[in-house]
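Handout, page 2. Input:
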Amino acid sequence: MSKNKTVSTRTAAAREKQIKAVTSLVTVLLFFGMLAGLGLATVFSEKESFSETQNRKLVDFPKLTGKNIYSGKFMSGTEEYVSDHFAGHDGWISAKTSLEMLTGKRERNDIYILPDRLVEKIPEPDMTEVEKSVNGIIKFAEDNNIVPYVMIVPTQAEIYKNELPANAPNPDQQAFISDVYAKLEGKAVPIDVYSALSANKDSYIYYRTDHHWTTRGAFLAYIAAARKMDIIPLTESDYDIDHASDSFKGTFYSKVLYEGIEPDSLDIWLPAERGAEPEVEIYSQFGADPELHEGMYFREYLDVKDKYSTFFGTNQPMVTIRTGNEGEKLLVFKDSYAHCFVPFMTEHFSEITMVDMRYIQMSYKDIIDVSEYDKVMFLYNASTFMSDRNLKKLMY
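Output:
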């Protein structure tokens, strides 16, 4: 090889090495520049207190006190604050979920990501608390000399358990519900909705992106309840179905921000022959006058993320519906599964009161005269009933 060719080869190699070095430097500078930019954007951007996408309150900046610094709460609180308010936070979560899906992972934030739906990972029931809830219902029945109806609704994790990832932990909700009903034998009337929901699993009975059942799922439960409660139910043909939204992304979506599941539709079932709208009284705090609302549907929520609140608004301690119909009065102790179920019952009762024990820090006797009601129902989804710590308040 000639001397000139050798020099030329060395020059080309040096130039290539130089180009690689410059490229690496530019890449590093761009990376740290991006981090710095995101950091500055995080520091100077306007902070929100609530994430509509995630449907939750965002963490506040921790208080700078000696006690917090010494305990480590200040540093951990700062990390949580930065994580919640980091610029592009939702985009990062969505991207991370998509990347994990490519690696075969099908679970994130206790949500199973199935091909056509999101399903919550249900923890094992706290049987100590369950026993207290059962005893609370029994004590309530004995104190008020009434036999209540009890409806425990299986969640998607039970109805679609065969679609969950192999060996995914999943408590047997059917056995759990049967066990609770057995404990209440002679003290309450059980309403079996498991059979109807299981038989109609291929219908649209649960939302794909949210933890609630759909209005159709609630309608199936209404038919099952009517058989036990000696009322003649309306049929599906008696309703006009208003497809109020087709862009509902619920609580499960908020946990994973995964775009691979079709958004949900939200339906409002309206009796074809209906009179005046029921008057709804919202008791957000006791000792103050209730907020009055004409009708059971808060349609302003159709324009925001939390579309399920179209049914009676957000969770409140107590809600009373005066239907304008003649008939008995119904008292319902419930979780939010009741919100799209109770409208079906308004055709058969003159007044219905819903009580959410999660938001009541006093004896139910201080706010309700049970003797004014002809029937009482307890309506909870199985996941809530497995972990509830509020029904035991009925013993006091």
